[in-house]
Records
---
Amino acid sequence: YILTHFPNVEVLTNDINLGVSGARNRGISIVETEYIAFLDADDVWLPNKLLKQKELFSQIPNCTLVSCNCLQIAPNGNVLKEGHKNRTPVSGVDAWKTLLKYNYIPTPTVFTKTELVRSVNSFDEELKVAEDLDLWIKLAKKGAVGVVSDVLVHYFDYEGSLMKTGDMNSADTVWTMVKGHTESEERLSIQEKRNIYANRLFGLAQIHLLDDFNTANELFEEAISHGHPRLEINIIRSKLWLKKMIKKLF
């Protein structure tokens, strides 16, 4: 149907499972357009998404990537949250610093130039998760990031997604990748690195808290050593202790 009705579409079939990064990289290697964007089968671009992003891209000097706002949708169609609500987007030449703290760029919101993606070796096929964030950081380091505030994408959240299967392993992979980018970056001050580590370690500890309190506690202490407020962490510990006591009583 696609080939019959859309002659500008080329369908690629892989003989073996190349994984997310391998499949995308194959497309990146053959595409001939100036710009490139990504859309998985279960996500939706809204009308004029590409046009609005291309317009902003052309207005920003040395732009390397343009993102947009989005809605996270449950399988039943209910809206879970707005993408920018709890993850404030940052534009400009220092956006990569914020991406080291947290990712505010879901893959289907990205609009960039094909040659820019190729220049940083596309997606890292060694990464099973966070290969997208790794690429956004590499692109953001090369220039300026733009953000369209309009909701132009609906992306769907499923229990079987890669980031939800083996959450602790996934979180550890993200931490290792971010740490590598941070340690090697001479443009970051010592305080900026401390802030990045504190934020990431705090998030990692919260994930480990579900199954491994001792590891979580070690990560909390490490986050504190990098400047995360002890009071906030102690409140989390107190709530957990209270839950355990209630569970014992009942």
---
Amino acid sequence: MKRNRNKNYALFARLCLVLLTCGMTLASCSDWDDHFDESAIKSDSQEIYNGDIVSYLKSTAELSQMSQMFQKNGIYDSTYTNKTYTFIVCDNNGMSAHADEISGEEAQANFALNSVSDMEVAPSMLKDGLGVQTRFGKCVWVYKRGNGFCFDENNVTKCVKTNNGYVYYVDGIVPIRLSVY
């Protein structure tokens, strides 16, 4: 019986040593604030924004043209913090480069609707051939290209996770496919 007690003490001592070593390792890690701020966390695959999707879009200078178009066409009015979304956006340079394709009020309204899905599509869900249904009533198709993905032939250049969805940056504009009806 004394032998079992000695084995238990030895096991307990080893366990304490392991826990102490793990605790010292964790304590030696640098402070969280040295790497991350309150609004965004960056990783290799995506950025994480601490806020809702509309706040992100409104506060990002490089998306000001798209944000104005979303505001003008009522997209923000029908986007709620308690629901999830996917926005496919291009920066101001991309918008300027394709200005002729989305000139006119109807084209801009259709483009705004075609850039938003009322469901959250995480990067882990992106599969070759996936169709993402947009508010315009059409699918934006996902294709695998090299090590990344594209939405309708536009490369995904950046992904931002917000509290209620994802914002995918693409290097062009998603085409508007009008219905024959």
